[in-house]
Amino acid sequence: MEKDFVTLTYTLPEAHIVERRPAAKAPIALAKEARRALGELRKYLRSDFERTSQYVKDSYEKQYRTSNAKWYRNYTDRKMVMPRIEGDKIIVSDKLVILSAHMQMLSHIFDQLDCRSVLDVGSGRGNNVIALASLRPEREYYGLELTQSGHERSLEWEKDLKEKAMPLVGIGEDMERVDFRKIHFLHGNAMTMPLPDKSVDASYTTLVLEQMPRDYPKALSEMRRVTKKYCVFIESFRESLTLADKLDLKNRDYFRFSYKTFEKYGLRPVFFSTKFLRKNKFSTGLLIAEVT
Ligand SMILES: C[S@@+](CC[C@H](N)C(=O)[O-])C[C@H]1O[C@@H](n2cnc3c(N)ncnc32)[C@H](O)[C@@H]1O
């Protein structure tokens, strides 16, 4: 692992932030964490839920039926703010803020590692690809999504953005710079990707392995096959979780495993960090793995 392999940088979109406050002092935080762990332990003793790929497909098919404009209104609604954690601070904001921080970090990572083509695995309604393309339109982008409805919404961004400017990073980026000729949305499964070997410089997932707690090795092998240089993951790695988080994720049957196992699938971890804006429950880590 190389501590300075990349630097993680982003500018918070101030217009989307409602409040900043210090995180709870250690004894209070510890007491809250213990209470949460106890609650999760009680659920754990009763729970035997298994996250199957059919369950995942059905739930996301429904989610992506809403239009991109409606999704954007929801993501920027200042009445629906949430607390996030950044170091020893709580940042209360709308949902766009975490998307903004993630996409700026990824874009800077791809700059630093000279990745000119990138694949988003589990690209949902395509918002992350469009956000990245608004920051760096000259890159080539691929977005692979399991659900039909997510794929359909992805293809609608070009039309939707003509009707309404929806800045997805919220830091003054110009959405008119998005070059749709360089964006390719694909409908398919991460376990059998419809892409040739070594077709992109980098591939990434944001909160997608979390949905495949048993099958993720197949997705990792496919990412390795289609990627030339690096795979980047923002996921709920064991190394970023508290005890209560681990129980919570077990109860929901989410991915909750160590990034150290990735080496087995030909992905050598070179950088790992949890030092960025994160959810306050089952928080995420950012891993960069080199294709070996
Ligand atoms: C929590 S959402 C995250 C979406 C997007 N990456 C984001 O950050 O907004 C998980 C996504 O992974 C997709 N997904 C789950 N299993 C998949 C698979 N086997 N192949 C492709 N996509 C998959 C789901 O359909 C869903 O769009």
Automatic annotation (TrEMBL):
Pfam families: Methyltransf_11 (PF08241). Residues 119-229 form the Methyltransferase type domain. SUPFAM superfamilies: S-adenosyl-L-methionine-dependent methyltransferases. It comes from the Bacteria. Transmembrane segments: none annotated. GO terms for molecular function: S-adenosylmethionine-dependent methyltransferase activity. This is Methyltransferase type 11 domain-containing protein. It comes from Candidatus Kaiserbacteria bacterium RIFCSPLOWO2_01_FULL_51_21.
